[in-house]
Amino acid sequence: MSNYDVMIIGAGLAGLSTAAHLIEQKKGIQVLIYEARKISSGASGVPGGMVNPVTGQKANIVWNAEKGMSLLEKRLKTLEAHSSKNLFKETGIIRPAVDDQLAERLSYLFKKRNLPKEWMEWLNEINLAEKVPGLKHSAGGLFIYKGKVVQTPEYLKAYAEYLESNGVTFQFGGPSRLKYHDAQWSLQCGRKVIKANQIVVAAGSKSRENRFWIDLPIRSVKGQLALYESDTPLDNLPAVSAYGYIAPLGKHTLAVGSTYESIFDDENPDEHASKQLDDRLKDLLPSIYPSCRKVGLWSGIRATTPDRLPIAGKHPEYDTMYIYTGLGSKGLLLSEVVAEQLVQYLLYNERLPNEISLYRFAKYRRLRQIALEDMNNKSSSYRS
């Protein structure tokens, strides 16, 4: 039987970043990460992850984008020492305006400059054609210099190696059973029992399957991605964010993603999505498409929330249980920010921002109030 200060369930972006901030903010803390499958097996392991601070159909600035980018860049620098492979490419991202209405919004976004001036540039039709030859005709576009493409499987593996080298324990393997008894959490995995004083559930879309979090306001969304090899060198091609994304992974490799399926029968890739992604590449980059051949399909299940922001917080009834999920498609950009703030909350009781707090949802505000009232009643009964 093993005992730890904190046990984290899930070895995706949320779980690994939480472990990193725990050991970096409190020396000597004993942390275990439990993963049912293997590193990069879930949605976090998408073959090509695009880091984009300007997302959605309306090109909104992502919450806490500046800090998220800063922490990610710092993490990438740290992890480079733990990988023999390139973890990312500074491709930049082009956000083309497919019509005049979007062109007006993107131009306004650039002028408003909620992000640093050096992060982005507005390109008119002529400049855009020079920047991305062969891109489908558009009314201009926003070029985001800070945009990156991360090789997420390699990134996650390097992250795990970094954590192991700094004393974090990993436990892998199949079904498990979680219990709370005598102010301690215990996880039984086969014949092995792991105990911890505190627990963080960071299992992505599977978090809701944990019986303590069945009321989580998250839903599962299937995303599929296609991988291509190109006879044409892609050295100077930036990532493209439109109807999903197109991300160059190497000199001759390309990822096209991602579908957004809230209704699905299984978690495996399917031919319908394959054709959809093929059409996307053909439509957006018609000059490159003929030289590309599809070499793989990938699918993963993301956890999303009603407002598309992550969830972090403490269970309304168990003071030593925490949740961290709902990163959706913003995992690379936001995982470090949320982990840093969750760990400060866990260790030092610093308040979480309302934007990511569990209690921003009415259901959990009500549950917290019930829990507080119950605690007060028990306290009054004890005093009498």
Tell me what the structure shows:
The protein has eight helices and 21 strands. It has helices at 13-25, 65-79, 100-112, 125-131, 152-165, 271-284, 331-348, 362-383; strands spanning 2-9, 31-35, 49-51, 54-55, 60-61, 88-89, 93-96, 120-123, 141-144, 148-150, 169-172, 177-181, 184-189, 192-201, 219-230, 239-241, 245-248, 253-257, 292-304, 311-314, 321-325. It is α+β, with helices and mostly antiparallel strands. Strands 1, 2, 11, 12, 13, 14, 20 and 21 form an eight-stranded mixed sheet that branches. Strands 8-9-7-16-17-18-15-19 form an eight-stranded mixed sheet. The chain starts with a strand and ends with a helix. The radius of gyration is 22 Å and the shape is globular. It is 30% helix and 28% strand. Strand 17 (245-248) and strand 18 (253-257) form a beta hairpin.
Strand content: 25-35%
Instruction: Please give the count of helices.
Output: 8
Question: Mean pLDDT, as a whole number?
Answer: 89
**Rg calc:** 22 Å
Helical percent range? 25-40%
Largest sheet: 8 strands, mixed
Poorly predicted regions: 378-384
Approximate shape? globular
Compute the number of strand runs.
21
Structural class: alpha+beta
| Cα-to-Cα separation, first versus last residue | 40 Å
Order of helices and strands: EHEEEEHEEHEHEEHEEEEEEEEHEEEHH
